[in-house]
Amino acid sequence: MAELKAASGAKATAVARRDASGVPIVKLTGEVDMSNVDSVRASVDLAIEHDPERIVFDLGALEFMDSSGLAMLLAVAEKISVVELRRPRPLIRRVIELTGLSTTFVVTA
């Protein structure tokens, strides 16, 4: 688990594990923004270093994500065939829908 805190006070936690079939699941909590996205990206890069075909991001405890967080997810989608965003809060789901990214990601309840 990596707890990431930037000078501005925004905190994000990225915890990676694999499910029974080997699919990486990255649970993001807190606030992912430009002050900590590089650290979050480093944790995600470790989770995908073996080039999986699919990755799941559990966003149920993610309170905020700015455009740098979306850009990070898009960078993952360029490398991985299926990127699932699981349990995004309504505000984050709305941003994904408004930006047209709901066709790029698999968004599940």
Describe the structure.
By secondary structure, the chain is of the alpha/beta class. 30% of the residues lie in helices and 38% in strands. The protein contains three helices and six strands; from the N terminus they run βββαβαβαβ. A six-stranded mixed beta sheet has the order 1-2-3-4-5-6.
Quickly count the helices.
3
Shape estimate: globular
- Determine Rg (CA atoms, Å): 13 Å
Largest sheet: 6 strands, mixed
Overall CATH architecture? 2-Layer Sandwich
**Low-confidence runs (pLDDT<50, min 5 residues)?**
1-7
Helix content, binned percent: 25-40%
| Helix-strand makeup class | alpha/beta
Tell me the name of the CATH class: Alpha Beta
- The SSE order reads EEEHEHEHE
Q: What separation lies between the terminal Cα atoms?
A: 24 Å
List the topology elements.
Layout: E1 2-5, E2 11-18, E3 24-32, H1 37-47, E4 54-65, H2 67-79, E5 82-86, H3 90-98, E6 106-108
Parallel strand pairs: 3-4, 4-5, 5-6
Antiparallel strand pairs: 1-2, 2-3
Helix pairs in contact: 1-2
